Amino acid sequence: MLRVAVVGSGPSGCYTAQNLVERHPDVHVDVLDRLPAPFGLVRYGVAPDHEKIKSLQGGLRTVLEHDRVRFLGGVGVGGPDGVPVERLRELYHAVVYCVGAAAGRPLGIPGEELPGSWSASEFVSWYSAHPDAADEGFLRDVRSAVVIGVGNVAVDVTRMLMRGAAELHGTDMPQAALEMLAGGGVGAVTMAGRRGPTQARFTTKELRELGRLPGVGVSVDTAELALDPGFVDLAALPAARRRNAEVLRDWAAVSPPDTGRTISLRFFLRPVQVLEADGRVGGVRFERTEPDGRGGVRGTGVFEDVPAQLVLRSVGYRGMPPQGLPSDPETGMVPHLAGRVLSDGVPVPGAYVAGWIKRGPTGVIGSNRSCAKETVTSLLEDAPALESREVPGDPLPGLRAAGADPVAWPGWLAIERAEAELGASLGRNPVKLSDWEALWAAARSE
Ligand code: NAP
């Protein structure tokens, strides 16, 4: 029997477990997660109003219910309280790290740490009920916000800032976040890209959603579109970029309705400083940029200040691999060859990666399928050598001896029941438990 631990129960972890049981008749997989609740980014990253993407959870659930897959929540790996990487290696023939890329990338500009300046990932964690996210009063006294970056996460947080009560009511977001977001205090959101509109990373489906928010206008500056050489001949652009450009051009052609709630999409603005007012964020200073002819931009020495009481930095993610794994100091990614972890260029026996920690924070959820498959192919090639090493018949006592107190599948089902009860008590659909105590209490109640 081949015993494999998959660390992380998000899409990459679940697809790895699925691929393993589909391709090896005698593999047993433990899917470990630091949180007592499974599904990683599908539960804690996909926007609450994206029900269709959230429904992918059903497929991940089937994997975790497979008779040769076991979910063990509440098991940290590495760090002061986690099971050491070296110990995990002793308990299993192979360990696949599918831990994602959880930390927001820093911008490295002055003022970034001011109160009211957050990475988008912190904000997403808050409205997604991640138990590590504190209720920081994100929107207290906020009338206008700046979102830095023009990827799909920037679109997500912009949209959530502008959604109304009726649209949020049916989601599973915590009541406190719902009340704050639905309060309607934020009248203006400026989303800014440092390059041109045809170089933005958002996808057209997500972009269009901004134009369908009830009572919200979208403003695009024709002059900024005109700065982009791609706008000279839209037909010459690759299809995805052309579709984005067409949406933006159509928005620029009309003035947004005067509803008091506006999203401004801005381009060729590079953030140079988060400005301070009364000890907290007061706005962002941008430098106007222009195309450099090579796909990049250069500064023009012209600056523009955009006032805001909230700044969300949505400029990508960094990996935070468990202590004991090699990683790139800049990106936090784990070096690998077809999923085999490399240390100083040499494969670490029995250690693998899949998902964002392997290939970086890019792609859609489905991209994790092929990524997991590549890693599993490497693992199964190595399996004969890996299986020759003796490991315990059941790793559970070893995990417990290392300080873990795992929440098994019935514990997760108890959390689900508690969330349904909480929702019912609020007259809502299931509402996620948002703190560690509540999650543990529910998990232990079964
Ligand atoms: P992303 O797509 O890589 O976008 C990052 C943005 O940050 C880009 O606009 C980038 O501009 C900008 N940026 C980077 N460094 C910057 C700097 N120093 N100053 C100013 N701007 C800077 O990342 P993401 O939005 O975090 O998304 C991560 C992945 O998740 C993507 O693959 C995304 O499609 C996916 N996702 C999908 C969905 C969905 O399907 N609904 C939702 C959320 C996320 P440059 O291009 O100039 O570098």
From TrEMBL:
Cofactor(s), names only, from the UniProt record: FAD
Keywords: FAD, Flavoprotein, NADP, Oxidoreductase
Domain of life: Bacteria
Catalytic activity line of the entry: 2 reduced [2Fe-2S]-[ferredoxin] + NADP(+) + H(+) = 2 oxidized [2Fe-2S]-[ferredoxin] + NADPH
InterPro entries on file: FAD/NAD-bd_sf, FAD/NAD-binding_dom, Ferredox_Rdtase, Ferredox_Rdtase_adrenod
Record flagged with keyword NAD: no
Positions that bind NADP(+): 194-195, 206, 363
Keyword presence, NADP: yes
Amino-acid positions noted as binding FAD in the UniProt annotation, renumbered to this chain: 12, 41, 77, 356, 363-365
Family from the record: Belongs to the ferredoxin--NADP reductase type 1 family.
UniProt-listed PANTHER family: GLUTAMATE SYNTHASE 1 [NADH], CHLOROPLASTIC-LIKE (PTHR48467)
Protein name: ferredoxin--NADP(+) reductase
Biological classification of the source: Bacteria, Bacillati, Actinomycetota, Actinomycetes, Kitasatosporales
